[in-house]
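Posted in: Structural Biology > Protein-Ligand Complexes

Title: Requesting predicted complex, heme C in pocket

I'd be grateful if someone could produce the 3D structure tokens for the following input. Sequence and ligand are given below.
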Amino acid sequence: MRTALLLMLLFSGLALAQPFSEGNAQIGKAMVEKHCIECHARRFGGDGSKIYTRENRIVNSSKGLIAQIRNCNTMLGMKWFEDEELNVAAFLNQSYYHFDK
Ligand code: HEC
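-- Reply #1 --
Done. Output follows.
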């Protein structure tokens, strides 16, 4: 019981140490699947995720990631709020970019 509690504390500590820890990656995942993947997949094939892991990718920092999400958001006219952008950033960072600050 006590071990479980310690593990929980440890993991929540780790989660807080990540950028975008305010964002909800589950919600972000659904948002990306709904709004973003189709176009990326058309250009990059598969599920489109190669766009985030390609060698010459644009995004190289957590600041760059949120900026790029904001660009796409504006370009697509989706009018996401800042907390919604954070959900998407949390998902993309946890799944692909893995920036730790
Ligand atoms: C209409 C097509 C289209 C849609 C829809 C789209 N994107 Fe993109 N996105 C692109 C293209 C094209 C690039 C690559 C630009 C380049 O290589 O210069 C890109 C690049 C990116 C990158 C940077 C990848 C890297 O190189 O690190 C991110 C992050 C990204 N998009 C996020 C999103 C998000 C989040 C959404 C949904 C809100 C979205 N995109 C919707 C076309 C699209």
